[in-house]
Specification:
Strand content: 25-35%
CATH topology of the largest domain: Aminopeptidase
Strand order of the largest sheet: 13-10-14-17-15-16
Distance between the termini: 107 Å
Number of strands: 17
Structural class: alpha+beta
Helix content: 25-40%
Number of helices: 9
CATH class of the largest domain: Alpha Beta
CATH superfamily of the largest domain: Zn-dependent exopeptidases
CATH architecture of the largest domain: 3-Layer(aba) Sandwich
Radius of gyration: 25 Å
Order of helices and strands: HEEEEEEEEEHEEEHEHEEHHHEEHH
Number of domains: 2
Largest sheet: 6 strands, mixed
Shape: elongated
């Protein structure tokens, strides 16, 4: 039946308006999902398909693979110096829950796509406006079957897990010989750590490590070495292996904290224990131990059971020395009203503290969620003050540790 003219025109106008509304809604979703033309990453989602665009400078060699538990897609770009960026952590209605890109190794950038549901890579290619990755729906079983890092996916990595080195035994410095202190600024590159008001944990702790290192060197009693001296990602186990490679006497990992519920302020110090001292310590350890997952590191092949038993046996004495160092640090920070008010010395299973032959501690230097701590972290005086307290604690601990070990040897 032929529609009357006025009804036919009304239908056309209505249909045109509907199309406009759908187009506007699609555009709005793209903007909310990282579609700002100036952003590094754009996410566009449709029926059963999601396209991610990374606005990289030029085509380079790349490789794409998937990892399970949690599900994610990883893209490595060789010989690129790319700007860092990320899409929002929550992308409603998308198979993607988050995307980020950043430096993974010198000369290598990495993009990690967190998946809200199983997906397979349909296309991956460079076009004029950057790199395009298209994902399609797939089944959980198909995703798991295809997942796994390709051989040599971590370019330039040395001494990664897989063949766990057995303890060599602690170094015994001669009297008066400087102690080698490995300073480990946490996170880096693609892993920013905690963030608040434009501040990123990885930047704060790197500045602090440089300041602390300069102060340690100036004493003549310590030789500082940094696990990273620039904005580069380094896997947790690689940090420990580097400390063991140079036979460091002490390992100090530097971080800053944040809370989403309640208020907290000040410094807290952690030593290693498989049993966390409290729920907060367990939560923080779990967050810090996720760094490798966030950066797309394949964690399979963590070493044999026999090797781990031998390491655990060797670690008992080291853990006691680590707890003594943590206590000395808390005492010095507390004397300056710098320590957190509640339970400043805590214990948890931080992977980065598991060197079996090096006393190791992790210092949370403050809370990005606290306005006063945030203000302090941005001042040069703050880093210098932290350096003074760490040096004072190391002096106290080193003297007592030498005396105790001399008694054990005799």
């Amino acid at each position: 039946m032929r529609l009357p003219t006025f009804r036919r025109e009304g239908f056309i106008i209505g249909f045109t308006l509907l199309c406009a509304v759908v187009a506007a809604a699609t555009w709005l979703f793209a903007i909310q999902g990282g579609g700002d033309e100036s952003s590094v990453i754009r996410v566009d989602s449709g029926w059963g398909e999601t396209e991610i665009t990374a606005r990289l400078e030029r085509p380079v060699s790349y490789r794409v693979f998937t990892l399970d538990d949690p599900r994610r897609v990883v893209v490595d770009f060789e010989q690129g110096a790319w700007p860092e960026g990320s899409a929002p952590a929550a992308l409603d209605g998308s198979m993607v829950s988050g995307v980020r890109i950043g430096l993974f190794r010198p000369g290598t950038a990495r993009m990690v796509v967190d998946l809200a549901e199983p997906a397979r890579v349909e296309t991956a290619l460079f076009e004029e406006d950057g790199f395009h990755l298209t994902l399609e729906d797939t089944s959980a079983s198909a995703f798991t079957a295809a997942a796994g890092a390709p051989e040599q996916s971590l370019w330039g990595t040395r001494n990664l897990p897989g063949s766990l080195a057995l303890p060599r035994g602690p170094r015994l410095p001669a009297p008066g010989e400087p102690l080698v202190v490995m300073l480990d600024p946490g996170h880096g590159g693609i892993d920013p750590g905690a963030m608040r008001d434009g501040l990123m944990e990885k930047d704060i702790v790197l500045r602090a490590a440089r300041t602390i290192g300069a102060a340690l060197e100036a004493t003549g009693r310590y030789i500082p070495v940094l696990t990273r001296s620039d904005d580069t990602f380094l896997p947790l186990d690689a940090r420990v292996e580097e400390a063991r490679r140079i036979r460091a006497d002490v390992f100090i990992s530097l971080h800053v904290n944040t809370v989403t519920v309640g208020q907290a302020q000040g410094v807290s110090v952690y030593s290693l224990s498989e049993t966390a001292s409290d729920k907060a310590a367990a939560r923080i350890a779990a967050l810090e131990n996720r760094a490798d997952i966030l950066a797309g590191v394949d964690l399979e092949g963590e070493g044999s059971t026999v090797a781990r038993i031998l390491v655990d046996m060797a670690q008992r004495e080291t853990n006691a020395r680590s707890r003594a160092l943590a206590a000395a640090l808390v005492q010095k920070f507390d004397a300056k009203d710098g320590a957190i008010r509640s339970n400043p010395h805590r214990e948890a299973g931080f992977r980065v503290l598991k060197a079996p032959d090096i006393p190791s501690v992790l210092i949370e230097l403050g809370f990005l969620s606290d306005p006063e701590d945030r203000a302090r972290m941005q001042s040069a005086a703050w880093g210098e003050g932290v350096a003074r307290e760490i040096i004072a604690a190391l002096d106290t601990w080193a003297e007592a540790d030498r005396a105790a070990r001399a008694l054990v040897r005799h």
